[in-house]
Amino acid sequence: MWQLLPSTALLLVASARPQAADLPKAVVVSDPPGNRVLTLDSVTFTCQGANPSGNHSTRWLHNGTFISSQTSYVIEAASVANSGEYRCQTGLSELSDPVQLEVLVGWLLLQTPQRVFQEGEPIRLRCHSWQNKPVWNVQYFQNRRGKKFSYDNSEFYIPAARSEHNGSYFCRGLIGKRNESSEAVDIIIQGSPVPSTSALLPFWPHIPFAVVMALLFAVDTGLYFAMQRHLHNSKRAWKNSKVSWKQDPDK
């Protein structure tokens, strides 16, 4: 009996723990938002997920390799080597989906929280400079066409995304006496969802009437042109059949 107690206790503990399928996925949140930064920028990753009481450790992975057990993972001065895939996991969550970080070398970077927007969502674009150096005379471009000019580097704000906002964006500005441009970023606007059948039901009574009217119009138009052709052909036939009468010279 005493030999059975330890195994029984283990079974009870195992049954009390949530199964992997029941655990929610952790979520990686980055600051600044988006997945592109310049060298020497600071980046903070936070892992959103539950932990057992009194245990706040988090498992962080960079390109599949364990890098930290802190609640947040901070990169003080980013380098190209920090580029890659980041994932996290807490004590009561599954491993998160990967979040990509791209560290670029350059003077300017067009920052956006995401690259895919739904129609109606606001779009905020910011022209970020290396080491936050002052930037003046900032221009924002869409498909190489100027969209906004800002003397003191304000953001480019679109209140509601529409299909015409699809395209390639970049920014340009003066850093000291240097005229610099960022790399282009492709922004994609996804359309509104297709309305359900129930949304179309109020219009069903009008559809048969519209179809009948369209058919009547087509038939009436066809008869009109048919009559016009018939009259034209009859007139031409009458002209061709006319007889010329001449007076008899002997009379």
Characterization of this structure:
This protein is an alpha+beta fold and 251 residues long. It has three helices and 17 strands. Strands 10, 12, 13, 15, 16 and 17 form a six-stranded mixed beta sheet that branches. Strands 2-8-7-4-5 form a five-stranded mixed beta sheet, with no helix packed on it. A three-stranded antiparallel beta sheet has the order 1-3-6, with no helix packed on it. This is Low affinity immunoglobulin gamma Fc region receptor III-A. One of its GO terms (molecular function) is IgG receptor activity.
Strand content: 25-35%
- How many DSSP H or I helices? 3
Query: Which sheet architecture does the biggest sheet show?
Result: 6 strands, mixed
Q: Which stretches are poorly predicted, pLDDT < 50 over at least 5 residues?
A: 1-17, 193-207, 241-251
Morphology = globular
Task: Provide the residue-averaged pLDDT.
Answer: 79
Question: Helix fraction?
Answer: 10-25%
Task: Give the assembly state of these chains.
Answer: single chain
Radius of gyration over alpha carbons?
Answer: 36 Å
How far the N terminus sits from the C terminus, by CA atoms, comes to: 152 Å
